[in-house]
């Protein structure tokens, strides 16, 4: 059981009770960055049986109330010989004690907390005399969340019922304990009346005191924007003790002096308290550490010109972002990303005979800027090629295809040649096809090149990201081979795998190759230096499949796979220390298909989905905790077979699209755009669109790379000439959207209400002095009247 000394401002004092030895130990903690003491500063020996509860006095320094087995004791921590008071014994155990702020009474609850029978208030200096006895209300339970709403507040007598907001709390986590923070820890900009900490345990029952601390707030809802509510926040007390324990024992009843008005406190603390709630404690630089010297009292809103109406200056956007981050933890600026299927006019429909049984190592289909390749369930390993420039409904007749004569295992477009398609078959051969300009006009039966070398069926193939004409393949013969398409031959054989290779990925600089295998290992190769892996580490536990790619400028490896319980998970590895294992992981869901990732290096956003899924997951990957930041998901109306992405130049920056993909369903190909909601879309969002690499242009040839040369892609800006960057947009003056709280809370007299009602009625009826419309009409002359005679 722990208690923090309320009057400590330069350090904390934590009290810890060891139930086994029946002692009270006091520890003095230094600055969190310094080494903490290894032994207690003070040890008390009450000698009254098992100890249950402790509580520091709210106004006196070093005065401690201890709940022993049968009686409450009061100790002066500067004296260890004996307690100041505590001879009265009760028949039943104490379960809660609390010292009132009035400093004269000690309140204690006895009996088990589930059947509270009576409440006794005793004069603390004469514990044998009971001043008052009454049945305890449930609101006095300190460790109940209802305390946040039922605890009396100086400014809440006439307010509506409050609302409890547990920010960052998960409904499945049960609270182990809670404690209410000081009033000056509440964020007045969010209209918080109470603030507390809740301690929860992790799933396996391991108690992590700091990592699992969650913030709880009691908020009063009012339509008053960023203004300060003087009616809700009266002056609050400081943290300097009013007197010593000896002075209190001699009869003193001094109160803690308010070091600063609550308005000034909250002006400072609104965006500084509760730093990093996800880690359980505030930083040492928080103003809570030295409240008496945090600000100048002369600068309080009550004494500052222009703030007499109770308004605080509107926080800047950066301050608002920091406030949200401090309360909710780190969040991604892409968290509200939206996926949307484009107009039907861009779809390709009526696809017949689609192959739905491609191997797990295959992405299902592949695309480039001009065309897409789709496998068909027709004998002979046929692949259909559709032009992106020709959307619409396909004819019911047979289409020209690419015939491989064997079952297709994997296929991939050359990133530097939109006409070259490499296809791996189950006959251990790789066929390279050349699609004519304008698409297929007739069926192709003769490939441009055939690569032979593997002795078993091939798993997957990948083109090099920088060198043209360089291809890598993995096979059931447990080898990974490099091919030079310029010479048409094999150039390297990489070994070291003990089981099936699930996935391969080239590093962004094209120097290294990473693989993930069924043998539970993640490996990194430097193919030009060695055929053996240069690094090796533990991979996913599940044997069902995995994918791998490089993230965060090639410093980390992201692996999507399965754990030992066949749940899909994402693991992040440091590329410099694979042997130490994953530095972070997150559980996704339960599904039989492997998550296929797409990574955008410009935004560090990874988009994942599996074949047969209807949900597309989106995360932002960061090189520090929490590593995985959740973003909104995209749900497709029906299961899709694959999702392949186009170059960044295909994104419409005017709609703030950060990725455009093609989704393959049972009979259609539908473009999907992923957009980031922004208010000022007329400006170029230069914080989203950094200069992007021209990865569709080669940096060097295969021969140059094999000889040891390196290269890198050139970068281009996506900003249109007629758009202004949002960073250079003119600043708008803040506009007050709401009336002050006094406007809503002020009670109007009957005469004022009557006058407002009459004014509203007159406004609806209009001005009575205005002429009627018919008065402006012209009459009929006498000679125009027709006589009946």
UniProtKB/TrEMBL annotation:
InterPro entries: Coronin (IPR015505), DUF1899 (IPR015048), WD40/YVTN_repeat-like_dom_sf (IPR015943), WD40_repeat_CS (IPR019775), WD40_repeat_dom_sf (IPR036322), WD40_rpt (IPR001680)
Residue span(s) of domain DUF1899: 327-392
Predominant location category: cytoplasm
Entry annotated with the keyword Membrane: yes
Composition bias type Low complexity, residue spans: 280-320
Gene Ontology CC terms, in alphabetical order: cytoplasm
Function comment: F-actin regulator involved in anterograde Golgi to endosome transport: upon ubiquitination via 'Lys-33'-linked ubiquitin chains by the BCR(KLHL20) E3 ubiquitin ligase complex, interacts with EPS15 and localizes to the trans-Golgi network, where it promotes actin polymerization, thereby facilitating post-Golgi trafficking. May play a role in the maintenance of the Golgi apparatus morphology.
Protein name (Swiss-Prot/TrEMBL): Coronin
Species: Scophthalmus maximus (Turbot)
